[in-house]
Design goal:
Blueprint (H helix, E strand, L loop, with lengths): L3 H6 L1 H4 L5 H9 L2 E5 L5 H11 L3 E5 L24 H12 L4 E5 L5 H7 L5 E4 L4 H14 L3 E7 L2 E7 L8 H4 L11 H4 L3 H20 L8 E6 L4 E6 L14
Helix pairs in contact: 4-5, 4-10
The chain binds zinc ion.
Protein backbone atom coordinates (compact mmCIF):
# COMPACT_ATOMS: atom_id res chain seq x y z
CA UNK A 1 0.00 0.00 0.00
CA UNK A 2 1.17 3.49 -0.80
CA UNK A 3 1.07 6.05 2.03
CA UNK A 4 -0.63 9.44 1.73
CA UNK A 5 2.76 11.05 1.36
CA UNK A 6 3.67 8.59 -1.43
CA UNK A 7 0.43 9.46 -3.21
CA UNK A 8 1.32 13.14 -3.01
CA UNK A 9 5.01 12.76 -3.88
CA UNK A 10 4.31 10.65 -6.95
CA UNK A 11 0.96 12.21 -7.86
CA UNK A 12 2.06 13.64 -11.21
CA UNK A 13 3.00 10.24 -12.58
CA UNK A 14 0.18 8.34 -10.83
CA UNK A 15 -2.16 10.71 -12.69
CA UNK A 16 -1.00 9.38 -16.04
CA UNK A 17 -3.49 7.07 -17.73
CA UNK A 18 -1.84 3.67 -17.91
CA UNK A 19 0.54 4.40 -15.04
CA UNK A 20 -1.75 4.73 -12.06
CA UNK A 21 -1.22 3.41 -8.53
CA UNK A 22 -0.40 -0.02 -9.94
CA UNK A 23 2.53 1.43 -11.89
CA UNK A 24 3.80 3.19 -8.78
CA UNK A 25 3.62 -0.01 -6.76
CA UNK A 26 5.54 -1.85 -9.48
CA UNK A 27 8.27 0.78 -9.34
CA UNK A 28 8.45 0.53 -5.57
CA UNK A 29 8.82 -3.25 -5.75
CA UNK A 30 11.66 -3.03 -8.29
CA UNK A 31 15.43 -3.17 -8.10
CA UNK A 32 17.55 -1.47 -10.76
CA UNK A 33 21.29 -1.93 -11.18
CA UNK A 34 23.05 1.15 -12.52
CA UNK A 35 26.55 0.40 -13.70
CA UNK A 36 28.49 3.66 -13.85
CA UNK A 37 27.62 6.87 -12.04
CA UNK A 38 29.06 9.27 -14.59
CA UNK A 39 27.40 11.37 -17.26
CA UNK A 40 24.71 8.81 -18.10
CA UNK A 41 24.32 7.48 -14.57
CA UNK A 42 23.82 10.95 -13.05
CA UNK A 43 20.42 11.74 -14.58
CA UNK A 44 19.42 8.05 -14.70
CA UNK A 45 19.97 7.54 -10.97
CA UNK A 46 18.36 10.83 -9.96
CA UNK A 47 15.26 10.31 -12.10
CA UNK A 48 14.79 6.71 -10.93
CA UNK A 49 15.22 7.74 -7.30
CA UNK A 50 12.81 10.66 -7.70
CA UNK A 51 10.28 8.35 -9.41
CA UNK A 52 10.28 6.03 -6.40
CA UNK A 53 12.07 2.91 -7.64
CA UNK A 54 12.32 0.79 -4.50
CA UNK A 55 15.97 -0.21 -4.67
CA UNK A 56 18.87 1.20 -6.67
CA UNK A 57 22.07 -0.79 -6.81
CA UNK A 58 24.89 1.59 -7.70
CA UNK A 59 28.19 0.30 -9.04
CA UNK A 60 31.27 2.38 -9.82
CA UNK A 61 34.93 1.98 -8.94
CA UNK A 62 36.06 5.46 -9.94
CA UNK A 63 36.50 8.63 -7.92
CA UNK A 64 35.00 12.01 -8.82
CA UNK A 65 37.42 14.20 -10.80
CA UNK A 66 37.23 17.91 -11.59
CA UNK A 67 36.72 17.20 -15.32
CA UNK A 68 33.60 15.14 -14.46
CA UNK A 69 31.63 18.02 -12.96
CA UNK A 70 30.79 19.60 -16.35
CA UNK A 71 28.24 16.81 -16.94
CA UNK A 72 28.14 14.34 -14.01
CA UNK A 73 25.85 16.55 -11.98
CA UNK A 74 24.93 14.01 -9.32
CA UNK A 75 28.39 14.88 -7.89
CA UNK A 76 29.34 18.22 -6.39
CA UNK A 77 32.65 20.00 -5.94
CA UNK A 78 32.70 18.77 -2.35
CA UNK A 79 32.70 15.18 -3.69
CA UNK A 80 36.03 15.48 -5.55
CA UNK A 81 38.10 12.38 -4.79
CA UNK A 82 35.11 10.49 -3.40
CA UNK A 83 33.95 7.20 -4.91
CA UNK A 84 31.22 7.95 -7.47
CA UNK A 85 28.78 5.32 -6.19
CA UNK A 86 29.13 6.68 -2.66
CA UNK A 87 28.72 10.25 -3.82
CA UNK A 88 25.63 9.30 -5.85
CA UNK A 89 24.15 7.41 -2.89
CA UNK A 90 24.47 10.52 -0.73
CA UNK A 91 22.77 12.64 -3.40
CA UNK A 92 19.89 10.15 -3.62
CA UNK A 93 19.46 10.02 0.16
CA UNK A 94 19.07 13.81 0.21
CA UNK A 95 16.35 13.69 -2.43
CA UNK A 96 14.35 10.56 -1.66
CA UNK A 97 15.37 8.76 1.54
CA UNK A 98 12.75 6.06 0.91
CA UNK A 99 14.91 4.59 -1.85
CA UNK A 100 17.05 1.71 -0.64
CA UNK A 101 20.56 2.05 -2.08
CA UNK A 102 22.94 -0.90 -2.38
CA UNK A 103 26.49 0.34 -2.79
CA UNK A 104 29.04 -1.45 -4.94
CA UNK A 105 31.91 1.01 -4.68
CA UNK A 106 34.39 -0.92 -6.78
CA UNK A 107 35.08 -2.12 -10.30
CA UNK A 108 33.13 -5.30 -11.03
CA UNK A 109 34.52 -8.19 -13.02
CA UNK A 110 32.18 -10.72 -14.64
CA UNK A 111 31.99 -12.89 -11.49
CA UNK A 112 31.14 -9.85 -9.37
CA UNK A 113 28.54 -8.78 -11.92
CA UNK A 114 26.87 -12.17 -11.54
CA UNK A 115 26.54 -11.55 -7.82
CA UNK A 116 25.36 -7.97 -8.34
CA UNK A 117 22.53 -9.28 -10.53
CA UNK A 118 20.69 -11.04 -7.71
CA UNK A 119 17.13 -9.76 -7.46
CA UNK A 120 17.63 -7.16 -10.20
CA UNK A 121 14.71 -6.37 -12.53
CA UNK A 122 16.46 -4.03 -15.00
CA UNK A 123 20.09 -3.10 -15.68
CA UNK A 124 21.24 0.29 -16.94
CA UNK A 125 24.59 0.24 -18.71
CA UNK A 126 26.01 3.67 -17.99
CA UNK A 127 29.61 2.50 -18.29
CA UNK A 128 32.24 3.79 -20.66
CA UNK A 129 34.24 0.80 -21.82
CA UNK A 130 33.75 -2.26 -23.98
CA UNK A 131 35.01 -5.07 -21.72
CA UNK A 132 32.46 -4.20 -19.04
CA UNK A 133 29.68 -3.67 -21.61
CA UNK A 134 30.27 -7.11 -23.09
CA UNK A 135 30.45 -8.74 -19.66
CA UNK A 136 27.23 -7.04 -18.61
CA UNK A 137 25.52 -8.21 -21.80
CA UNK A 138 26.53 -11.83 -21.14
CA UNK A 139 25.35 -11.75 -17.55
CA UNK A 140 22.01 -10.14 -18.49
CA UNK A 141 21.46 -12.80 -21.18
CA UNK A 142 22.27 -15.57 -18.73
CA UNK A 143 19.81 -14.27 -16.13
CA UNK A 144 17.16 -13.07 -18.60
CA UNK A 145 17.34 -9.47 -17.34
CA UNK A 146 16.59 -6.49 -19.63
CA UNK A 147 19.59 -4.30 -20.39
CA UNK A 148 19.14 -0.62 -21.22
CA UNK A 149 22.23 0.50 -23.03
CA UNK A 150 23.30 4.01 -23.95
CA UNK A 151 26.41 5.77 -25.10
CA UNK A 152 27.30 9.37 -25.85
CA UNK A 153 30.34 11.11 -27.20
CA UNK A 154 30.86 14.51 -28.83
CA UNK A 155 27.30 15.56 -29.75
CA UNK A 156 26.15 12.05 -30.61
CA UNK A 157 24.25 9.48 -28.65
CA UNK A 158 22.56 6.14 -29.00
CA UNK A 159 20.10 4.10 -27.02
CA UNK A 160 18.93 0.48 -27.19
CA UNK A 161 16.94 -1.85 -24.95
CA UNK A 162 17.96 -5.51 -25.06
CA UNK A 163 15.37 -7.74 -23.44
CA UNK A 164 16.36 -11.42 -23.44
CA UNK A 165 12.79 -12.33 -22.43
CA UNK A 166 11.54 -11.26 -25.85
CA UNK A 167 14.54 -12.50 -27.85
CA UNK A 168 16.04 -10.44 -30.67
CA UNK A 169 19.42 -8.79 -30.84
CA UNK A 170 21.79 -8.44 -27.91
CA UNK A 171 24.50 -5.82 -27.39
CA UNK A 172 27.11 -8.11 -28.97
CA UNK A 173 24.91 -8.54 -32.06
CA UNK A 174 25.12 -4.76 -32.46
CA UNK A 175 28.86 -4.57 -31.77
CA UNK A 176 30.40 -7.95 -32.63
CA UNK A 177 33.89 -6.62 -31.95
CA UNK A 178 35.20 -3.77 -29.87
CA UNK A 179 36.26 -1.87 -32.99
CA UNK A 180 36.92 1.67 -34.00
CA UNK A 181 34.08 2.98 -31.84
CA UNK A 182 35.95 1.89 -28.74
CA UNK A 183 38.58 4.49 -29.52
CA UNK A 184 35.98 7.21 -29.04
CA UNK A 185 35.81 8.29 -25.46
CA UNK A 186 34.67 11.49 -23.83
CA UNK A 187 38.16 12.08 -22.46
CA UNK A 188 39.65 11.98 -25.97
CA UNK A 189 36.83 13.27 -28.12
CA UNK A 190 34.88 15.55 -25.81
CA UNK A 191 31.17 15.67 -25.07
CA UNK A 192 28.53 18.25 -24.22
CA UNK A 193 26.89 17.81 -20.81
CA UNK A 194 23.28 17.89 -22.03
CA UNK A 195 24.06 15.22 -24.65
CA UNK A 196 24.88 12.63 -21.98
CA UNK A 197 22.02 14.12 -19.97
CA UNK A 198 19.50 13.36 -22.71
CA UNK A 199 20.75 9.80 -23.12
CA UNK A 200 20.86 9.07 -19.38
CA UNK A 201 17.35 10.51 -19.04
CA UNK A 202 16.16 8.23 -21.84
CA UNK A 203 17.63 5.27 -19.99
CA UNK A 204 15.64 6.24 -16.89
CA UNK A 205 12.53 6.68 -19.03
CA UNK A 206 12.83 3.25 -20.63
CA UNK A 207 13.44 1.69 -17.20
CA UNK A 208 10.32 3.36 -15.78
CA UNK A 209 8.30 2.17 -18.78
CA UNK A 210 9.60 -1.39 -18.51
CA UNK A 211 9.00 -1.59 -14.76
CA UNK A 212 5.62 0.13 -14.62
CA UNK A 213 4.25 -1.29 -17.89
CA UNK A 214 3.56 2.28 -19.04
CA UNK A 215 3.93 3.29 -22.68
CA UNK A 216 5.95 1.48 -25.31
CA UNK A 217 9.50 0.42 -24.68
CA UNK A 218 12.05 0.75 -27.52
CA UNK A 219 12.19 -2.75 -29.02
CA UNK A 220 14.44 -4.21 -31.71
CA UNK A 221 15.59 -0.73 -32.69
CA UNK A 222 18.58 1.49 -32.09
CA UNK A 223 17.83 5.13 -31.46
CA UNK A 224 20.58 7.30 -32.92
CA UNK A 225 20.87 11.02 -32.45
CA UNK A 226 23.22 13.81 -33.33
CA UNK A 227 22.23 16.59 -31.00
CA UNK A 228 24.46 19.11 -32.76
CA UNK A 229 21.90 19.05 -35.57
CA UNK A 230 18.99 17.45 -33.66
CA UNK A 231 19.00 14.68 -36.23
CA UNK A 232 17.25 11.64 -34.70
CA UNK A 233 16.83 8.25 -36.35
CA UNK A 234 15.70 4.75 -35.48
CA UNK A 235 17.26 1.76 -37.17
CA UNK A 236 16.12 -1.85 -36.93
CA UNK A 237 18.21 -4.34 -34.95
CA UNK A 238 18.22 -8.05 -35.57
CA UNK A 239 20.03 -10.91 -33.91
CA UNK A 240 23.17 -12.27 -35.58
CA UNK A 241 22.78 -16.02 -36.01
CA UNK A 242 26.42 -16.60 -35.05
CA UNK A 243 26.54 -14.17 -32.12
CA UNK A 244 28.84 -15.78 -29.55
CA UNK A 245 26.90 -14.30 -26.64
CA UNK A 246 23.18 -14.74 -27.36
CA UNK A 247 22.99 -17.64 -29.85
CA UNK A 248 23.18 -20.15 -27.01
CA UNK A 249 19.98 -18.75 -25.50
CA UNK A 250 17.86 -18.88 -28.64
ZN1 LIG B 1 23.81 -11.42 -29.70
Amino acid sequence: MLSDSDLERYSRQILLPGFDIAGQERLRNSTVLILGLGGLGSPAALYLAAAGVGCLRLADGDAVKLSNLQRQFIHREADLGRNKAESAAAAIAERNPAVVVDLLARRLDEAALEEAMQGVDVVLDCSDNYPIRYALNRVCLKHGIPLISAAAVRSEGQLAVFDPRSGGACYRCLYPEAGAESALSCSQSGVLGPVVGVLGSLQALEAIKLLSAYGQVLRAELLLMDLATLDIQRVGLSARPACPDCSAYR
